[in-house]
Amino acid sequence: MLRISKLTDYATLILAQLAGQPGRRATAAQLASETGLACPTVSKLLKQLHRQGLVQSTRGLHGGYLLGRPAAEISAVNILDAMEGPVALTECASHESHCCIEPTCAVGRAWRRVNLAIRRSLQDITLLELAGLGAGGAAPSALDRGFPVAVSTITVRGRREPL
Amino acid sequence: MLRISKLTDYATLILAQLAGQPGRRATAAQLASETGLACPTVSKLLKQLHRQGLVQSTRGLHGGYLLGRPAAEISAVNILDAMEGPVALTECASHESHCCIEPTCAVGRAWRRVNLAIRRSLQDITLLELAGLGAGGAAPSALDRGFPVAVSTITVRGRREPL
DNA sequence: GTCATATAGAACTAAAATAGTCCTACTTTG
DNA sequence: CAAAGTAGGACTATTTTAGTTCTATATGAC
């Protein structure tokens, strides 16, 4: 129902891979083979992650990529933002006439609140957890407190979520 | 960063409109003109909402649509699910070899948890609130407790979210 | 009974976003 | 200076999404 793009999912995979071997400098090709993704794709993603500051890069011979900061300090929001951009304000801002009928804008305001709630959830999830390396000792993230067990439906375009 | 499709947004608009005039039977054409959306589109959406049980319909002369149940009993998840489907399990279920490398699945599990957290947030938001008709008396929904004020970034494809 | 006014449902078309590839330039080290 | 890397942009193909149209069905008024 709410989707994360395939590329964002791939990016998470790559970051998780890097998180698993901290300090090691990996090339795009290595990460591609380790994750099973196509090399050009991995390369493209790493470039973008670099631009967004999530990974460090070294050029030239023996170059490669490194996590930009400890996995514990990278949250799901960071990844989402890096890959999909803060997107943000669209037409509504300029064409007031088109969307600012009373109920419409109320709806808009409400969605915004929904969004904040979601961001909040995502801020609590670190790459460490995403990578399945969660520090057992730390307090379980807010997410672990008993939810109503609804069927999961985030779908990463095409590939994931067995159920 | 997380997107809701335009049609889902439209659907919310339509439902909000219906919520604003409870008991009145509105035709697709009326709702179209009230919301400013194209008539065929509104019609299509209403059909789907009907199939999903969110609106009641009456055919024939003087027919039209009515909210399926009180606005207070329709949540954002209901709307999302109705419009975008529970989507759910994709390739990963069948092609285990492709996505069940260790870290991959860990990532999958984590996303699933994220998703549950999001659903939980959405369950608390009723159509009443989305329509801006929120009962002032009731306890403010979980969403109203002071969030870190991050920039909002749910984008309803193209049209909305001024900021 | 039949005509006007509605919804129901499916098929089709068009547009836009996503995903994926490729090519050229720049950097570093042996 | 050659080999092994990353940087970045342009381009193509695919998939989703959005939107329209057409046919069938139901209801009530005359």
Mean pLDDT of chain A: 74
Radius of gyration of chain A: 18 Å
Termini of chain A, distance in Å?
14 Å
Number of helices of chain A: 7
Biggest interface, chains and residues, is: A-B, 76 and 76 residues
Oligomer: homodimer
Low-confidence parts of chain A = 87-98, 136-163
DSSP strand content of chain A: 5-15%
What is the 3D form of chain A? elongated
Strands of the largest sheet of chain A, in order across it?
Answer: 1-4
What does this structure look like?
The structure is a homodimer of 163-residue chains. In chain A, 46% of the residues lie in helices and 7% in strands. Chain A is mainly α. In chain A, the strands form two sheets. Chain A has a two-stranded parallel sheet with strand order 1-4. A two-stranded antiparallel ribbon of chain A has the order 2-3. In chain A, helix 1 crosses helix 4. Chain A is elongated, with a radius of gyration of 18 Å. The model of chain A is unreliable at 87-98 and 136-163 (pLDDT under 50). Chains A and B meet through strand 1, helix 1, helix 4, helix 6 and strand 4 of A and strand 1, helix 1, helix 4, helix 6 and strand 4 of B. Chain A binds a DNA duplex (30 and 30 nucleotides) through helix 3.
List the helices and strands and how they pair.
The structure is a homodimer.
Chain A: E1 3-4, H1 6-20, H2 28-35, H3 39-51, E2 55-58, E3 64-67, H4 76-84, H5 96-99, H6 102-123, H7 127-130, E4 155-156
Parallel strand pairs in A: 1-4
Antiparallel strand pairs in A: 2-3
Helix pairs in contact in A: 1-2, 1-3, 1-4, 2-3
The structure holds a DNA duplex (30 and 30 nucleotides).
